[in-house]
Write a structure and sequence with these properties.
The complex is a heterodimer of chains A (321) and B (465). Chain A is α/β, with parallel strands linked by helices and 321 residues long. Helices cover 45% and strands 12% of the residues of chain A. In chain A, helix 1 packs antiparallel against helix 4 and helix 3 packs across helix 4. The longest helix of chain A has 19 residues. In chain A, 36% of the residues are buried. By secondary structure, chain B is α/β, with parallel strands linked by helices. Among the domains of chain B are: 116 residues, Four Helix Bundle (Hemerythrin (Met), subunit A); 195 residues, Rossmann fold. Chain B is 47% helix and 10% strand. Chain B is built from 16 helices and eleven strands. In chain B, the strands form two sheets. Chain B has a seven-stranded mixed β-sheet, sandwiched between helices. In chain B, strands 8-5-6-9 form a four-stranded mixed β-sheet, with helices on both faces. Classes of the chains: A alpha/beta (321), B alpha/beta (465). At the A-B interface, helix 13 of A face strand 11 and helix 16 of B. Chain A: This is Translation initiation factor eIF2B subunit alpha. Chain A: Pfam families: IF-2B. Chain A: It is found in: Cytoplasm, Cytosol.
């Protein structure tokens, strides 16, 4: 499977290829509709949007020497395909850069599952001995997938509870995470839990490296968690009406309730014994979070090893220069 | 006192009409005494003279640096009374230096105040570099009446704010250019430059130039020097006026509208915003967001002596935005409820620091402490190539009279400090510096950028600022 931004570029390239638009205007209309459909289909469209923005950049640059429409379309399709082919090699480049930061015997902490991080870890494993802690990354539990893949490759790997990150942080040499998007402020948008890990790493003075291909860089500027496009009133609200306390309806005295801590007495008390969150409860929680730039040590990408401040320099040069 | 003995020797030396010993051969104390005597002589000549003394200001300014040290060493134990007298006068003229002489009234009071002031070397020495201004002699070269008027408006603080001052300056210079005629055997490009420089010095003497004025004037000079030498004068003047209009339109008016829109995206329904003093750009942002139908409330934080927030409050409430007004000292009580802080800037420095109305640094610091995003709204023409690290090196002292003496009627006038008295020196710096670590985002007309990326703006603009 492919990273969302690349998938978006692929989709849009194909759209252009198959489109029968006759004029430039029609073509841009088709593109807009395509972008809209992509972003509407998926609840978390941050990565896809990155790809769409990049594709728009291609279009803008290509319109500078506008010739016949069919030539233009060919040029665009060719550029799209070329980019996709090149982008497949980006993660190799990043793995190479990351290798410079891995010392023999390093203990690395990573979060959830990321293709880029996987590649970097496997690359490092070829020449150096590393051990990896990976967080479970509930609710999707993708950390277990990482654990499987690393163990299969022969890298010693242990799954860490999300809440035990602070416990292991002092044992860790550095933290390596992937990204959904890297934004204008130099901050990181990644699976929920990354911000927490970054804060703990900062407190423990451990470096926090974010691996991101350049197509994940976006001209978005969230001021805080609550300024993310994925945030809304549906994320972690308080319930409108607090349900009445269940113990009263059974006519039991309060002292009995306290003794009956374990086995459920009333039918509705069965919910108290549930061990994991219900699907509705999980749906109220955010999928991605925003890590502020001052918590990130370096952003390692195919265009180079950037400081968080350097991300904006790159973005301005790329999109506005 | 040890200074007493050598006191005699240089005097005797002079009285016996021997050549004055070179300063190198005198002891430190002797040199000190010589300087004091020279200064006392000058000061007495000055005190008996007029209030307006542009010519003598320079040597005083030069001499005071060396006297600052000896007086500090002598301490408050005091020396001869003439010494104390001259120190007062020097200090007085320095601190009160930017009080306008042109006004007549306030300037006249300075001389009488001086004698009642006591030595306060430590406090004033820190800010001693603020008040030093090059006072050009009135009437040196022909000053256009519009420029004289503008100078008065500036020095009386009737036009304040980086944008307002720059706009006023550019409009005035348009008048100057239109009324200008090239003298014989001169080219417009060269002579107009000199002509304008004289006007500019007059304005700078009235009040130190803002960064916006500086950038605009620099651009104007570039345009003037680029004028085709073969162009007839009227055409050249018209093209210059047109260039000025374009500059205003592009970099102030339209830039403000773009910023209002970009910053508007950061305002959501139900937000509680906070702003400090009065920024014309922030006002635009808030009014635009309100016009777009967003519902939010605003805390307007204000501070003495300028109390500019009142004007902003009037503008916002008449548009129907629910506002709360408070003074800077109360900000701790409300900051926890705020969702975003919007501030304006007098200028932005290349290291991302924001030079803005005094008090802004406090507001940003408080917001940062509570993890509240601080958004600076600023056009690109406010960017200064310099790097500033603290509020000290570059600032301006405001006067404590005239436009600044706005008092609530409920408090008796006598209890408020309105002017310097014995043992009391009033300092009123107008600006302070907000370091980049306290700023979350900067909204310019070319995009929303982090404060560390100010250097990329010229790339985005595609031209020199």
């Amino acid at each position: 499977k492919v990273a969302p931004p690349l998938a978006a570029i692929m989709a849009l390239t194909e759209l252009i290829e198959k489109s029968t638009a006759g004029t430039m205007f029609e073509l841009s209309g088709v593109l807009d509709k395509g972008t809209q459909q992509l972003t509407d289909r998926v609840p978390n469209s941050i990565g896809l949007n990155a790809g769409c923005e990049l594709f728009n950049l291609f279009v803008t640059v290509a319109t500078h020497d506008l010739g016949v429409l069919s030539d233009f379309k060919d040029k665009l399709v060719r550029q799209g395909n070329q980019y996709i082919a090149e982008a497949a090699l980006y993660s190799e480049k990043i793995a190479g850069f990351t290798n410079g930061f891995v010392k023999d015997g390093s203990v690395i902490l990573t979060h959830s599952h990321s293709r880029v991080v996987m590649k970097a870890l496997l690359h490092a494993h070829k020449r150096k001995r590393i051990s990896v802690y990976v967080t479970e990354a509930k609710p999707r539990g993708l950390g277990l997938k990482t654990h499987e893949m690393l163990t299969a490759a022969g890298i010693p790997c242990t799954v860490v509870l999300d809440s035990a990150v602070a416990y292991v942080m002092d044992k860790v040499d550095f933290v390596l995470v992937g990204s959904e998007a890297v934004v204008e402020s130099g901050g990181l948008i990644n699976a929920t839990g990354s911000n927490q890990i970054a804060i703990i790493a900062k407190y423990a003075n451990k470096p926090f490296y974010a691996l991101a291909e350049s197509f994940k860089f976006r001209r978005l500027f969230p001021l805080s968690q609550y300024d993310l496009p994925t945030h809304g009133p549906g994320i972690l609200p308080f319930p409108r009406q607090v349900p009445p306390p269940t113990s009263v309806t059974n006519g039991q005295s309060p002292s009995d309730d306290l003794k009956d801590a374990g086995p459920p007495v009333s039918p509705s008390a069965g919910s108290l014994a549930r061990k994991s969150m219900s699907a509705e409860q999980i749906a109220l929680n955010p999928e991605v979070d925003y890590t502020k730039p001052d918590l990130i040590s370096l952003v390692i990408s195919d265009v180079g090893i950037l400081t968080p401040e350097g991300v904006s320099h790159y973005l301005v040069g790329m999109f506005a220069g | 006192m040890s200074s007493e003995q050598p006191h005699q020797t240089p005097q005797q030396g002079r009285e016996s009409s021997q050549p004055l010993r070179s300063p190198k051969t005198m002891t430190k104390a002797e040199r000190r005494e010589l300087q004091e005597k020279q200064r006392a002589a000058k000061a007495s000549a000055k005190a008996s003279g007029q209030a307006n003394k542009p010519a003598t200001k320079q040597p005083e300014g030069g001499g005071e640096k060396s006297s600052g040290k000896p007086s500090g060493k002598q301490g408050s134990g005091g020396g001869p009374s003439t010494q104390a007298q001259t120190l007062h006068q020097r200090r007085g003229s320095r601190v009160g230096g930017d009080i306008p002489r042109l006004g007549g009234g306030p300037g006249g009071n300075i001389v009488s105040d001086l004698s009642s002031r006591s030595i306060n070397p430590r406090g004033v020495r820190i800010f001693s570099h603020f008040g030093l201004q090059q006072k050009s002699g009135a009437g040196k070269g022909l000053i256009h009446p519009a420029v004289v008027r503008l100078g008065l408006l500036f020095s009386n603080f009737q036009i304040t704010g980086a944008n307002a001052r720059c706009l006023a300056t550019l409009i005035t210079f348009k008048h100057v250019i239109q009324d200008y005629t090239t003298p014989r055997n001169n080219t417009l490009t060269r002579h107009l430059m000199n002509h304008l420089s004289a006007q500019i010095s007059h304005l700078v003497a009235a009040r130190p130039m803002s960064v916006t004025m500086g950038n605009a004037i620099r651009q104007l000079k570039v345009e003037i020097s680029g004028v085709d030498i073969d162009l007839p004068e009227q055409d050249a003047k018209e093209s210059l006026c047109e260039k000025i209009d374009n500059y205003i339109q592009e970099r102030i008016t339209v830039a403000g509208q773009v910023i209002a829109q970009s910053a508007g995206f950061k305002i959501k329904n139900g937000d509680v915003l906070l702003t400090y003093a009065r920024s014309s750009v922030v006002e635009q942002v808030l009014l635009q967001a309100h016009k777009e139908g967003k519902s939010f409330s605003v805390y307007v934080v204000d501070s003495r002596p300028m109390l500019e927030g009142k004007k902003l409050l009037a503008a916002l409430t008449s548009a129907g935005i629910p506002c709360t007004y408070l003074l800077l000292s109360a900000i701790g009580s409300v900051i926890a409820e705020v969702s975003t802080v919007f501030i304006g800037a007098h200028s932005l420095h290349s290291n991302g620091a924001v030079h803005s109305r005094a008090g802004t640094a406090l507001v940003s610091m408080m917001a940062k402490q509570h993890s509240i995003p601080v958004v600076v709204c600023c056009e690109t023409y406010k960017i200064s190539e310099t790097v500033q690290l603290d509020s000290f090196t570059k600032n301006e002292l405001g006067p404590m009279n005239g436009a600044f003496s706005i008092f609530p009627i409920s408090i008796p006038r006598e209890s408020l400090a309105t002017e310097n008295t014995a043992n009391l020196e009033i300092l009123n710096p107008l600006y302070d510096l907000t370091p980049p670590r306290n700023i979350t985002a900067v909204v310019t007309e070319v995009g929303v950028i982090p404060p560390t990326s100010i250097g990329t703006i010229h790339m985005a603009l595609g031209r020199m600022i």
